Description:
Blueprint: E1 5-10, E2 13-18, H1 23-29, E3 53-56, E4 59-62, E5 73-75, H2 79-93, H3 111-119, E6 142-144, H4 154-162, E7 168-170, E8 179-181, H5 197-201, E9 207-209, H6 224-241, H7 243-260, E10 262-267, E11 276-282, E12 285-290, H8 304-308, E13 323-326, E14 329-332, H9 335-353, E15 358-361, H10 368-381, E16 387-388, H11 396-405, H12 417-420, E17 423-427, H13 431-434, H14 436-448, E18 452-456, H15 462-466, E19 469-471, H16 478-491, H17 497-503, E20 504-505, H18 507-513, H19 519-526, H20 530-542, E21 546-550, H21 552-555, H22 560-573, E22 583-586, H23 593-598, H24 615-625, H25 640-648, E23 654-658, H26 662-665, H27 669-677, E24 681-686, E25 698-701, E26 710-713, E27 718-722, H28 735-745, H29 755-765, E28 783-784, E29 809-810, E30 829-834, E31 861-863, H30 865-871, E32 878-882, E33 887-894, E34 902-906, E35 935-940, H31 968-972
Parallel strand pairs: 1-5, 15-16, 15-23, 17-18, 17-21, 18-19, 20-29, 21-22, 23-24, 24-25, 30-34, 31-33
Antiparallel strand pairs: 1-2, 3-4, 3-5, 6-9, 7-8, 10-11, 11-12, 13-14, 13-25, 26-27, 27-28, 30-35, 32-33, 32-35
Helix pairs in contact: 3-7, 6-7, 9-28, 10-28, 10-29, 11-22, 16-19, 16-20, 16-22, 25-27
Amino acid sequence: MSEQTCTIIYNGEALSGAANRPLIDFLDDHGKKLPHVCYHPALPPLQTCDVCWVDVDGEQVRGCTLTTQDGMQISSQTATSRAAQEEGMDRILNRHELYCTVCEHNTGDCTLHNAVADMHIPIQYYPYERKPSEKDHSNPFYTYDPDQCILCGRCVEACQNVEVNETLSIDYTAEHPRVLWDGGTQIAGSSCVSCGHCVTVCPCNALLEKTMQPDAGPFTAMPQKVKRPMIDFVKALEKSISMEPITAISVIDTALRKAEIKKTKTVCTYCGVGCSFEMWTRDRHILKIQPVAEAPANGISTCIKGKFGWDFVNSPKRLTTPLIREEGRFRPASWDEALDRVAQGLRAVANQHGGDAIGFIGSSKASNEEAYLTQKIARLIFGTNNVDNSSRYCQNPATQGLFRTVGYGGDAGSIKDLQLTELVVIVGSNLAENHPVIASHIKQSHKHQGQKLLVVDPRCHEMAERADCYLRVRPGTDMVWASAMARYMFDHGYADDKFLSERVIQVEEYRASLAPFTLEFASDITGLSVKELTTAAEMIGNAGSVCLLWAMGITQHSHGADTSTALSNLLLVTGNYGRPGTGGYPMRGHNNVQGASDFGCLSNIYPGYDKVTDHAAREKWAKAWGVSPEALSDKVGADNFQMVQEAYEKKVRAMYIIGEETAFSDADSTKVHQAFTQLDFMVVQDIFMSRTAEFADVVLPGCPSVEKEGTFVNTERRIQHFSPAMPPLGDSRPDWQILTDLAARLGHPWRYPNPGAIMAETASIAEIFAGVSYEQLVGWQSQQWPVKADGSSTPLLYTESFHFPDGKARLYPLEWRPPEEREDSEYDLLLNNGRMLEHFQSTNQTGQGGRISSLSPNWFVEISPQLAAERQLKEGDWVAITSRRGTLEVPVVITQRVQGNVLFIPIHHGKPGVNGLTGDHHDPDVNTPAYKEIAVKMQALDHPPQPNPLPQHNFRYGQRTPLDHLPVEDKWQQTGYQQPPAHVKHPEKF
């Protein structure tokens, strides 16, 4: 549908453009500037700054409230409008001291500075008055300076209704209004999750990244004893020469800084949400992360890791030169020597034992292009399909469930569908901590659009607390309630019969398989009451649209593929595929775990999900690569889990591991370490000397994404391009260059000039990437596969057909199979485990620099108050947690988040960590280890207690203060408030 247009008259000039566009943005499109401070395109009109006054048909109106309509007559230059604008700015300047040339924020995006410069204010009417509050440095990542705060409320609106963390507020009726955290004056210890959203939208220097302080500009780092007298002198000078010459100097300063600052579009290197933003750098100094409204997955939203978790890039612990092991020790080596050694070592194993004696593990953090090269080396050069990535440890069961039922191994729609749906169901996913930006989108819809939220999880996390219905399920039993609810839909008239008859097969066979799954049976297995199950089933049955999200709480069980299948079955029964706001959404854990799989780092598929056992697919790839089909193996290779098992059995004799902490992440780590020591040859390519790299014969220093070019695929199948913000550190190299150079040494000189050429090759072969190109990914553009040859994306799958030859989905019959490992009289507890918001995996990245680690530096185990009372344990007491395979010692945190005999432990801390307790029991369908099935016993230890295992300044102790909107009316209704252009007695409050 074509966009509506309009013509408005602005200051006597006709301007044409989009109708229903915010006036300030419309004017900006035409190079016109309406002064404003509180307005932000990603926020609703706040109406707090009183700077954007215009005349509309003789009436004074705040311009931020207007959207363009045909025929509007607007003036910003009447005497009254101009006087009102200046009065609004004068009130702001009463509470904000302009010292821009020595301010860290004078880098071009200070809205207040820019507005003052644009308005050409000769002198401020109200003198600046200091406020009694001191600057707050208590957060590791940003500061709040109440003395510079202009009370615009952008930060409050962003926190309350965009991020929906609901921490910030302003009491406009206070004697000295300021931003509050949970109603208090200190950031530390509040519910602030350090998402940085408030810092991003702050229009001045009141909220500012610590990485910007003190050396963001040429004069900003001067000592306070020099800076303060200089400011006082200049402020006194303003009274005689006016503000404009001083402002002109600060404009020059801004221009000088902007010339030095590089702004690079990049994509986050942490979870699978796929947030993109600008990285601001000066040389190698990362000044800040600046989100933009145009970012397709996140807009201006970020989380603690995406906004602040970049200290690892310049860590002194980075690998910067190749290393070769000699006599049990590593020595530095040149790239030529190291790559020659790698080529010789791999070739020797292949010559003696065959290509299948080598295993390749690609990185779910490296680019799509690097995943493609990894599998190409394995398949084309060594003739083996022994290639995999970390999706084996987390998401393969979900992918298998989708393959069985709907055909594609990815999210059914986009993140925006999660806001369009009537009901969101979250199962086995701590979404607010593992995928916080997606959680924010859902929290917005739940808070403001009447969306319903159903959460099923053994642990009461934030989304469970917010849910309309929360089911605390027994771990490992989700397949049962999902199947019981599918039966309930058939039995109570909620099944979408038209959808099933037209678009689904195996319906009757599947319905017959549901006979055992009564609500009573489900109640007995899951620990949920029939009433709870009925309530949840009615929510699903009555919803006009349903999106169902799940993650590792489902997949990391011995039958995660079956449970994932059951969840997709339930969606099919209710007709919740192929429409906006419907579908299954397995949340991807790593930034490119989806892309690593899409581009062929799986043991059974080529890029684009062609099966290696399919003769036609094998011929296609052989032809594209210029070899006979016989040169490519038609046998499914060993996956991550099997490679380690076969290394333990001395069948796999060499491994090449890229950017994966396998020694820490694979189950039963004792056995993993034994397997690695038995290898004839091992190569690790990484950015740190990881636990895995310690076993290597050759270590190759790769680069993080901010030092190279490439693309990632996020959880919604969105392909995004990233560019290098800085050159590789030391002698490290981009992984695609390392792999290309290695291939040349192995007799395959591919000569890719850049990653775009690698993508072009992939797109020319794999149909689902047919129209993918770097030209289509410029700037904030993105593409969602399948991408047609003309470059058009597929944001929503299954609108016309499912990905099967007949175009129809399959209902997949299942039988209940209990968890492989359960508690007994000796091992009487269940140890659940998972991620924390502030950490990532083995902390090789988030553990650098100490800022993130300061939020939760200690390992601990969560136990319920009931269990603590039974075992006579207090907060901080040490316990031994023992499984059938190992023991670890940790202090306890007593919390209502867990209940009964279920414990929870974070996966990040300690080496070898929690996998000293896990076993090699696994999902037989996809070989994903059952990380979440650990039966343990717990014994109190006679150690001195650990004071505050979770520090008191951690956000988990905060108490949120929810608001529906910024209460600007409280300001207007105060005695003494007068609408500009009238002067007021107490401008600091208005």
